[in-house]
Amino acid sequence: MKQTFINKARLWVLEPFGAGRFAQRPDFVLLTTIGGLFLFGLLMLSSASTVIAFQEYGDSYFFLKRQLINGFIPGIILFLVALKLPYQIWKKLAFWMLIISLGLLVLVIIPGIGVAHGGAQRWLSIAGIDFQPSEIVKITFLIYLATWLEKKGKHGLQDIEYGTIPFLTVLGTIALLILLQPDLGTLLVIMAMSFALYYLAGAPWKHIGVISAMTIGIIIVLMVASPYRAQRLQTFFGGGDALGGGYHISQAKIAIGSGGLFGLGLGHSKQKFKYLPEVQGDSIFAIIAEEMGFVIGTLVIAGFIVLLLRGLRVARGSPDDFGRFLASGITVWFVFQALVNMAAMMNLVPLTGITLPFISYGGSSLAISFFAIGILLNISKQSKLPAV
Question: Is the entire prediction scored with pTM above 0.70?
Fold first, then answer.
């Protein structure tokens, strides 16, 4: 009896990494790439956050420990569950997952329930652990949208009342709840995923064009209407004071520039001594460039390019439209978020407060990211394409 239980437990743990009842093993290149980005992220987080962690919490490795406890441990559990269960199961749960996550978004904006940090009310706290419902919404809305698009089909999306209006209604509801926090960066990621899937599903170009124009207009209004967003926009176009509104990007450029080809060496950053804001979060890529240099920084970018290529390959080999949409959305999510984060640090786009996936500090972000990658790898196990 005991031996039978042990054998079943062993199979449950090990089967996700084998062929099992699926056509092949999960995409090994993708798995290795994500593992490499995560481990490198832990290394850089331990270096970048030591000063601020010691000054604020008396523990140089405070952020590293929190990342492991609040992010990695729940994340690896979610990863194994997503890797074990056939991805089609999430289609059955899509509606209720979205409803629950929307309910959490509503709780965030209720005074006395939502938790505020740094002027933004984006967190809930359970048993002393803070988490961001907006991170959960990324994956629940993506699953719901992939389910909805598969059900509608290309023909259904041609009709404005049957396709476009319901799409905009759900997306608009999520956008409103996220903007009330406010969290424009997360909203941009969700919108990028949504538009990519809407296009892949076969929506008419004229509908996509109108929606895109409306979205760009709304984003511009939001940026201009908000003083701090307007200041970031002004800084991007070269009008910011290096000691005022342009301070953050000025310090980021100093960090990147001083790193040179091979960097100052691990742990030798000067900007992390409270010159550069958010070194453990949004600005960690600038510290990577400062300590590790252009060569390692380029390898980080290459890692996300590999993620893009392998993710799209998984989508192309998916056995159904739901898997194709889901794999495409997850790939767009991580690559778009990484691109915007790194581009912002180099002043190629305005600062948006978007973190670098698998590398920046953030427990709920890391946990949900691992869950999404587990789903992507599960789709790869059922791929119609041969393993490469």
Answer: yes
Residues 6+ apart with CB under 8 A from 78: 367, 368, 370, 371, 374
What pLDDT score does 367 carry?
95
Question: Is residue 16 a part of any domain in this protein?
Answer: no
**CA 307 from centre of chain:** 13
Q: Is the pLDDT at 41 greater than 50, yes or no?
A: yes
Q: How many domains does the chain have?
A: 1
Cis, peptide link before residue 182, omega less than 30° from 0 = yes
pLDDT digits (tens, 9 = 90+) for 84-109: 999 999 999 999 999 999 998 888 88
User: Are the CB atoms for 324 and 331 separated by under 8 Å?
Assistant: no
**CA-to-CA distance for 162 and 93, rounded, in angstroms?**
22
SS (H, E, C) 280-334: CCCCHHHHHHHHHHHHHHHHHHHHHHHHHHHHHHHHHCCCCHHHHHHHHHHHHHH
Domain, as residue range, for 327: 37-381
One-letter identity of residue 265: G
Tens digit of each residue's pLDDT (9 = 90 or more) over 152-188 = 877 777 777 777 788 888 888 888 888 887 788 888 8
| 206-227 CB burial, b ≥16 within 10 A, e <16 | ebeeebeeebeeeeeebbeeee
Neighbours of 91 (CB within 10 A): 19
Average pLDDT over residues 9-28: 57
